[in-house]
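*Target chain*
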Amino acid sequence: MAQTETLIVGAGLAGLRALYALREKGISAVVLEASDEIGGVWNHNRYPGARCDVESFDYSYSFSKDLEQEWRWSERYPTQPEILRYINHVADRFDLRRDVVLNARVNEAVYDEDRAVWMATTSDGRTWTANTLMLCLGQLSAPKIPSYPGQEDFGGEVIVSAMWPRRKVDFSGKRVGIIGTGSSGMQMTPVIAQTAAHLTVFQRTANYSLPAANAPLTDEEDARVKANYATRRDQIRNSPTGLGFQPGKVKTLDVSDEEREAALEKSYHRLGFGFALTFPDILLDAKANAVASDFLKRKMGERVADPVLRKKLVPNDHGFGTRRPSVDGGYFEAFARDNVELSDIREHPIVAFTPEGIRTDEKLHELDIVIFATGFDALTGALLKPRIVGRDGRTLAEKWADGPLTQLGLATAGFPNMVIVAGPGSPSVLSNVIVSIEEHADWYARMLATFRAQGIVEFEATEVAEKTWTDYVQQRAQETLYGTANSFYNGGEVAGKPRVFMPFSGGVRHYRQHLQKCADENYSGFEKRKTPAAQKSTEVHRHA
């Protein structure tokens, strides 16, 4: 049985960053990773066209000035292979691998109340104990895999985009079907269309998308950013989303039609997700959102010549930003190709898989390869995969049966000495997640170092604090338009999942102020003990 001060689960961007932060505070840690490679989602999501929708300069660690200057990104939006190379470079550059254990999938973690330690068991039977359990399992990392009648009878190959094989998949001469039109489906469609004999895109929900405006990074731009990186990082940390964009000061309907059109046009061609911040009320006011949505519908429609196809590809059942939008590189244009077909499965649902392909209630689509680009059980899915057992034998799945409850998105009552990085109750998926990861990693490292100095052996979120924060997360969400659509923000992506808005929508900067207040008040909202509560209970009982 191996021991360490902190056990980190997951060796993606969060787990590696947490390891670095803890080391800086002199706290020993071990990272357990299920895969045989580090990288998290960027290790698994190897599908054609996989690319980050945050600019490369900003989707990177800020803890090392030398690293910032040394690493050279090649494109404005980095591809999956480049991000994975970056992650591996960081692991080597800072000697992180020596504390990472690969092929160590955590099946169960149980809290020992008497000793105030966590015991984690991996799928091969190994056991680890630690004072603190840190969950770095990702927000979009538990693939959602559909099950259709006859699926096992399909004679071709089935591939899940989030579990893409490491071998090269050759689409030449193949009839390919993609189920799903979120970011993954929209990114891979134009790439696969170039070589497939025929491509059928099965769409349930039309999605908003903006052009990625991707381009190679010139030496001049690289030098310019690196000369002012500190300023850029500061702008990012103090922006609402961690993207560096500040909302416009004037409301959508308070400017002339000409000014509004010019502002939206400028954002559309450059800002990607930042389009939502062109005006401050786009995600807050229904009339403002309708204006922005209509603009995007018009722009998307201009990219589709066929009027029948245009009506199907342009969303009409939700406002822009109420579900996660995409940025794409030629998605709509791909449907102008003779070998690309759209199957609207809301109009003509999938009935079953057959040995030959997929049958809808309209026709049989003969296919050689089917790709599930069906997204994830977001925010809570990966956290609830292992069996995590807290006080009194209660599991995290039981505790969160009606939705996640957290104190500041950091911890949950009944699970002492357990923390979560960039999970529900924090900005997470509503932010440039690497900004949120770094915020949490450094905050936790300071907290654990403080507790060690104070002789604290057990800390636990209080029920009052987690209820107050969870209610506040819902209150802030109700001030927005997020509740007007089903999305992975509110559990709408999985049948039977509690419909609770999960990320904190109040912004990165505002969230940091809450973190700072908590720390300044000696970590308010947490009960801190120098003796485990179970031992105190035993003492009281013995002397009664």
